[in-house]
Design a protein that fits this description.
The protein is α/β, with parallel strands linked by helices and about 375 residues long. The protein has helices at about 10-25, 40-45, 60-85, 95-105, 125-135, 140-150, 160-165, 170-180, 195-215, 245-250, 265-270, 280-290, 300-305, 320-330, 335-350, 355-370, and strands at about 1-5, 30-35, 45-50, 85-90, 110-115, 135-140, 155, 185-190, 220-225, 240-245, 255-260, 275-280, 310-315. It has two domains: about 1-160 and about 355-370, Glycogen Phosphorylase B (Rossmann fold, 3-Layer(aba) Sandwich); about 170-350, Glycogen Phosphorylase B (Rossmann fold, 3-Layer(aba) Sandwich), CATH 3.40.50. Helices cover about 50% and strands about 15% of the residues. The protein has a seven-stranded parallel β-sheet with strand order 3-2-1-4-5-6-7, with helices on both faces. Helix 1 crosses helix 16 (about 355-370), helix 9 packs across helix 14 (about 320-330) and helix 11 crosses helix 15 (about 335-350). The protein starts with a strand and ends with a helix.
Length: about 375
C-alpha cells in the first residue's frame, strides 16, 4: 500500500484536499491516507493525525507560535519514525507548510504543494524555500505556471478548485420562499468573512453600510452569511443570517458586499456584481505594504489585470463608500455590466479543467513512478 500524508490548516484547504482524495480513491484502491484536517478529509476516510484546533489563527502571539512549533515537531517525528509516507501533500496555509517543507526535505520525503502561497502577490522571497524544498507545485491560477517556470520550479496548472466544486443554481424562487424573502425586492448578500478577526474588523462597517442603504431606498432586503468555519453564535445582526448556504446566497443576490478572499471568485463564477472590502490591524497592514508585489486585492481584478471590482481596503473600508458603491450597482446599468464583464473574463481565463481530477492524477503518477 502507498501512503500519503496531507497537511491542511483551514476549512477551505480541508475541503479542496478532500476532493483530491475522493478522486484518488476512484482511480486507485491501494493508497492509505493520514493527515491534518477536519470533517471533509475525515469523511473521505483520511485518518486525522490532528485537527485545526491550533491552526488558522491570526497574529504572531507567543501561544500561536508555540502551538505551531509543537505540532510541526509532532508531525515530523511521526512521519520519520512511524508513518514513513511515499508523498506529503501540502495544501495552502503557507506560513506553517513552508516551514514543514524544510524538515521534509531533510528526510528526503517527496513533497508536493497543492494551492501554493500567493507569492506573486506578496513575500516573493518565499520562492527560495519552494525551489529548494518542494518537488512539484500544483497551481490553481493560470498565470502562476509561467511565474514558477521562470524560476525553474516544476509546476503544473490544475485549474481552480471552485470550477468543479460550484454547483448550478437555478431555483431562485424556491430559495426566496424557503427563507421568507420578498421576490419583488432586490437581495443584497453580505459576507463579513470566515475568520473571527475579519468579523471583528469588518462586521460593524458592513452593518453600517447596510443601514445606510436601507434608509435610502425601500426596494432592497439583506441576508448575512455566516461562514461554516465560524462558531454558530460568533456574530449577531438584526437581519436574516444563513449558515451553510453561502453559494445559494452568492448566486441569487442582486449585489454582494464581500470580505476580500476566494468568495469574490465564487461570486464571479455566478456572475453576481460585488464590491470587496478588507480591514485588519494597522501594523499588519503596514507590514503587508512592505512585502506586497501587486496593488490589487480582488482575485477578479488580479486574474484579469484590470480594475473591474471596487476595492475598499483598510482606511477606505468605510460604510458610506460601500453603501454608495452598492447603490451604483443597483441603479447604474453601465456599472453593473462592467462588473459582469469582469466576471465573464475571469471565467474565460480560468478555463474548465477539473482541478481535483487533474491533481489526483499528478499525485498518483508521482507515487507510482517510484515503482518503475
Amino acid at each position: 500500500m502507498k501512503k500519503i500524508f496531507i497537511i491542511t490548516g483551514e476549512y477551505s484547504g480541508d475541503m479542496h484536499a478532500a476532493m483530491v482524495v475522493h478522486e484518488l480513491k476512484k482511480i486507485s484502491n491501494d493508497i492509505v491516507f493520514e493527515g491534518v484536517g477536519e470533517s471533509n478529509l475525515e469523511h473521505e476516510g483520511v485518518k486525522l493525525f490532528a485537527n485545526h484546533e491550533n491552526m488558522g489563527k491570526m497574529g504572531l502571539s507567543p501561544k500561536t507560535i508555540i502551538d505551531h512549533i509543537k505540532l510541526g515537531k509532532k508531525i515530523i517525528d511521526y512521519l520519520k519514525n512511524e508513518y514513513k509516507p511515499d508523498l506529503v501533500l501540502l495544501v495552502d496555509y503557507g506560513a506553517f507548510n513552508l516551514q514543514i517543507s524544510k524538515k521534509l526535505k531533510k528526510l528526503n520525503i517527496k513533497t508536493y504543494y497543492f494551492i501554493p502561497p500567493q507569492i506573486w502577490a506578496s513575500r516573493r522571497y518565499r520562492i527560495k524555500t519552494i525551489k529548494k524544498n518542494i518537488d512539484k507545485v500544483l497551481s490553481i491560477f493560470p498565470f502562476e505556471k509561467s511565474f514558477y517556470d521562470k524560476e525553474g520550479i516544476d509546476c503544473e496548472y490544475t485549474g481552480h478548485p471552485i470550477l468543479s466544486e460550484l454547483k448550478e443554481m437555478n431555483n431562485r424562487d424556491a430559495f426566496f420562499e424557503k427563507h421568507g424573502l420578498d421576490k419583488e425586492k432586490k437581495l443584497i448578500g453580505v459576507f463579513p468573512g470566515s475568520r473571527m478577526f475579519e468579523i471583528k474588523f469588518l462586521l460593524d462597517i458592513f452593518k453600517g453600510a447596510v443601514n445606510l442603504i436601507e434608509k435610502s431606498r425601500n426596494d432592497v432586503q439583506f441576508v448575512f452569511s455566516q461562514a461554516e468555519s465560524l462558531k454558530e453564535n460568533s456574530f449577531k445582526v438584526d437581519y436574516k443570517t444563513l449558515r451553510g448556504e453561502n453559494r445559494e446566497l452568492l448566486a441569487y443576490s442582486d449585489a454582494l458586499i464581500l470580505a476580500s478572499g476566494t468568495v469574490a471568485l465564487e461570486a464571479a463564477m455566478y456572475e453576481t456584481p460585488m464590491i470587496i472590502a478588507y480591514k485588519g490591524p494597522v501594523l499588519f497592514y503596514l507590514i503587508y505594504l512592505l512585502v506586497r508585489n501587486i496593488k490589487r486585492a480582488c482575485l477578479v481584478n488580479i486574474i484579469t489585470n484590470k480594475d473591474y471590482i471596487d476595492e475598499f481596503l483598510m482606511f477606505d473600508a468605510d460604510k458610506e463608500k460601500i453603501a454608495n458603491a452598492i447603490n451604483q450597482i443597483l441603479d447604474n446599468s453601465q456599472k453593473r455590466n462592467y462588473i459582469l464583464e469582469g466576471c465573464r473574463k475571469t471565467k474565460e481565463l480560468l478555463g474548465s479543467s477539473n482541478c481535483a481530477q487533474k491533481s489526483a492524477q499528478i499525485v498518483l503518477e508521482a507515487i507510482r513512478s517510484e515503482e518503475k
